[in-house]
Automatic annotation (TrEMBL):
Phylogenetic classification of the source organism: Bacteria, Pseudomonadati, Planctomycetota, Planctomycetia, Gemmatales
PANTHER family the UniProt entry points to: DIACYLGLYCEROL ACYLTRANSFERASE_MYCOLYLTRANSFERASE AG85A, ENTEROCHELIN ESTERASE-RELATED
Source organism of this protein record: Gemmata palustris
Domain of life: Bacteria
InterPro entries, sorted: AB_hydrolase_fold (IPR029058), Esterase-like (IPR000801), Mycobacterial_A85_antigen (IPR050583)
Pfam family, any one: Esterase
Protein name: Esterase family protein
Length: 204
């Protein structure tokens, strides 16, 4: 199960309509590069009146509040209604920008729920790593993959750089990918292309 989250300008259709996630993943699967997986692409705003057209500085709380929806509502719903694996090592959480910040914020503080976490071009909603990694040894032990990536010309590259440097300082293993590009879909599609094949495999 991969829970894949969108950014501030998108809704739940962003990853397929603009990111062609279905096509990228189907092609990887056809090439035998992907462990079969089910991808859930929810709307990541938990607020009644906040949409992708709401000014950016007013959207933060809706993205933050989604943690409770994801953990207490969406994942239980999926696992109750569909025949899916429901152990932590069968759950991945990744996203782009605001969704990248959500993935790092929620993933790193819920290690009993997720073993695979990815932040693509994570936004300033990303909390300081000191808040997310209380025990570097536990994080290291429990995470199968921690992926941090960004385009080299992204206007919020400093967020990912800070995450990468902080994780290095704490000696928490992670994959750091600096790719070519701005804050744009071509970068995130490539992120998905390289991130997804790593999921749900033996790592050590
Ligand atoms: C910001 C810069 C970028 C910000 C949010 C973003 C809320 C998010 C971008 C995206 O999701 O694509 O200052 O503040």
């Amino acid at each position: 199960m991969l829970y894949l989250l969108h950014g501030i300008g998108d809704i739940e259709t962003g990853w397929t309509k603009l990111g062609a996630a279905d096509v990228v993943l189907d092609n990887l699967f056809a090439d035998k590069k992907l462990v079969p997986m089910i991808v859930v692409m929810p709307n990541g705003r938990a607020a009644k009146d906040v949409t992708q057209r709401t000014p950016w500085d007013k959207q933060g709380p809706a993205f933050e509040a989604f943690e409770k929806d994801l953990l207490k509502d969406l994942i239980p719903f999926v696992e109750k209604n569909y025949s899916v694996k429901s152990d932590r090592e069968s759950r991945a959480l990744a996203g782009l920008s605001m969704g990248g910040g959500q993935s790092l914020n929620f993933g790193l503080t819920n290690l009993d729920t997720f073993a695979w976490v990815g932040g693509f071009a994570s936004a300033p909603n990303t909390k300081p790593i000191g808040d997310l990694v209380k025990s570097p040894s536990e994080t290291t032990k429990k995470l199968k993959l921690l992926w941090v990536s960004c385009g080299d010309a992204d206007f919020i590259l400093d967020v990912s750089k800070r995450v990468h440097a902080s994780l290095d300082e704490l000696k928490v293993p992670h994959e750091w990918h600096l790719s070519e590009g701005k804050h744009e879909w071509p970068v995130w599609k490539v992120d998905l292309y390289y991130f997804a094949p790593k999921l749900f495999r033996e790592t050590r």
